[in-house]
Structures are given as structure tokens and as C-alpha cells.
Design brief:
single chain; 199 residues
């Protein structure tokens, strides 16, 4: 009779699964992004309220909506773009555009210096908007044509700003940002206009 050797059974494998939870990265991991989003909301509300009460403006209601949108829109899209493409340049450009929109609120005041800040913020909005449009496809200034477009935008707005230093009656340039009659004085008119300057 053959005796079969005894084989010790293999130790049973532990069939229990680990219940350890992995940490999930929050959607907004940086405090400054949350603070920026809160700032955008507060500034948009303030801009809407201040502009709506500025009775010297030709279209205070429409302009109030526009100024709130100039803040909330670019900052919200810029934060989203930065979340999806953290190494891209378009997100910071859009955020900068929204921050300049906060300065644009001051164009709804009658104080000459603040009104001048609002006037010149229009030039920065124009340049940053041009830059964002050109950068949208490639995420940067990929070619000579893109850089030329942005350079022309910068030169044209610098020239307009230089004219504003000589004109105390310098008026807003955006389509619905005009005044009912005479706009507040431009507080940045610090240079006397030449003799040939039209009065």
C-alpha cells in the first residue's frame, strides 16, 4: 500500500480589501484663486451699483451690466482656463483683463482723477482683449503676424493715452460709456495742449 505524502495546505490569502481612502485634489487648491473669485463677485456688484447710480452717464443701466460682465467674465474664464491648462498663458491674460475691469468702475465717478483712471483702463482693456483673441487658438504669440497685431494695438492705445494727457475733456471711447452732456474732467490732463490743438 502506497502512502501519499501529506502536503500542508497553503496559507489562505487575505481576501479583505483595503478601505483606505485616497485623498482627492480639490477643485480650487490655491487660496488666492478662491480669494480672486470672491473679489470678482464683490467688485462686479460694486461696479453695477456705482454705475447704475451715475446719472451723468448716457446709458447707466446697460453700462452697469457691461462693467459687471467685464469683471466676472474674464476672471471666471481665466480661472477655468488656468485649471484646465495650468501652464498656458491665456488664463493669466484673461485674469488680468478682469482685474483691469475693476479699474474701469472708476469711470462711473465724477472725481477727476478717478474718472481719468477709468478712461485709461479702457486702453488697457482694448490691448488685453486683442491679446486674448490672438492667443486663443495657439495659447501664445506663435508667429510674427500675432506679435504684429498686438504691437499695433499697444501703439495705438499709447498714442491715445498721450493725447489724453493734453485734453481735460477727454471722453470715454467705448460705445455705451458716453455721458448725457459733458463728462467729468480728465484728472490726468497735466500737459498744456499746443496752440494748434482743437478747442
Amino acid at each position: 500500500m502506497t502512502v501519499q505524502p501529506r502536503v500542508s495546505p497553503a496559507p489562505a490569502k487575505d481576501m479583505t480589501f483595503s478601505t483606505r481612502h485616497t485623498s482627492v485634489r480639490p477643485v480650487w487648491p490655491w487660496r488666492w484663486e478662491r480669494a480672486l473669485a470672491a473679489l470678482a463677485i464683490v467688485a462686479a456688484v460694486v461696479g453695477f451699483w456705482v454705475t447704475l447710480r451715475a446719472r451723468f452717464l448716457a446709458y447707466p443701466g446697460w453700462l452697469a451690466v457691461q462693467k459687471a460682465d467685464f469683471i466676472l467674465g474674464p476672471i471666471a474664464v481665466g480661472l477655468y482656463w488656468r485649471l484646465r491648462r495650468p501652464n498656458g498663458l491665456l488664463g493669466p491674460v484673461l485674469i488680468a483683463l478682469g482685474l483691469v475691469g475693476i479699474l474701469y468702475i472708476s469711470e462711473s465717478t465724477t472725481a477727476p482723477v478717478l474718472f481719468g483712471v477709468g478712461l485709461y483702463s479702457e486702453n488697457a482693456i482694448y490691448v488685453l482683449t486683442s491679446l486674448a483673441i490672438v492667443m486663443f487658438v495657439s495659447g501664445g504669440l506663435a508667429g510674427r503676424a500675432e506679435r504684429l497685431i498686438v504691437a499695433l494695438a499697444v501703439i495705438s492705445q499709447l498714442a491715445q493715452m498721450a493725447l489724453g494727457f493734453m485734453d481735460p475733456t477727454f471722453a470715454p471711447g467705448f460705445s455705451i460709456s458716453g455721458c448725457r452732456a459733458v463728462c467729468p474732467a480728465n484728472g490726468f490732463a497735466i500737459v498744456s495742449p499746443p496752440s494748434w490743438w482743437p478747442q
